[in-house]
Amino acid sequence: MSKQKKSCPNLNHNRVNVQLRFCAHCGDIVNKKIAPKECSEATHAQRRKGRSFHCVDCGEKLITGSAW
Fold this sequence. Notes:
Layout: H1 41-49
């Protein structure tokens, strides 16, 4: 578990049993025990439609033009 960034509204930073490696909002690692995955462009496109800023599996920035 990592400390929540002051500017990140995602509450996964404070949770004990997070099932994601990366925060979808800021891209920081929230669970180091989960190995990063390789994702396809189709997976990233689906996550963009879900309005994620970062991929929760590989950490890649999905949406450009953002402050994140």
